[in-house]
Specification:
It contains two helices and eleven strands; from the N terminus they run E-E-E-H-E-E-E-E-E-E-E-H-E. The protein has 140 residues and is mostly beta strands.
Length: 140
């Protein structure tokens, strides 16, 4: 098992992400939407991962929604970095994390590929997230 840590630039929003493998191969999607391009959003997730999120100052976190308004981009209002995105589906929180916010990880371990979700309907989008996003998300 491997645990990777990440955080926004100032450290207000931090996370640990547990992989079942000792040396995980990290697949990441470089989303082509305007928000992700402007904020360096390159996302990774798998439904078998476990994510623990710690927020030091909740008042310094903005939840930004756009487009279909089905996901919350957690943006630190102090440093402007979005380390993760959450989506509530059928009473359960799912998430993706921004690989650009990992700490101490060799960038060569990340396989980046472009992604576009343009034209995807809300139902298809939620079904994809339920299948592919991190399925165990805990906030403290």
């Amino acid at each position: 098992m491997a645990t990777l840590a990440g955080k926004c630039h100032c450290g207000n929003i931090g996370f640990s992400l547990r992989y079942p493998e000792a040396e995980p191969k990290i697949a990441a999607r470089a989303c082509g939407c305007g928000f992700c391009v402007k904020h360096g959003g390159v996302w990774t997730s798998r439904p078998d991962l476990e994510l623990d999120v710690k927020v030091d100052d909740p008042a310094a976190v903005s939840r930004y929604r756009f487009g279909t308004a089905t996901a919350d981009f957690l943006v630190c209002t102090r440093c402007g970095v979005p380390p993760l995105v959450t989506c509530d589906i059928e009473g359960r929180t799912h998430a993706v994390v921004n690989v650009n916010t990992f700490e101490g990880l060799d960038p060569a371990t990340i396989a980046r590929s472009p992604a576009s979700f343009e034209g995807e309907g809300v139902g298809d989008r939620l079904a994809r997230r339920k299948r592919n996003w991190i399925g165990t998300v805990r906030f403290s």
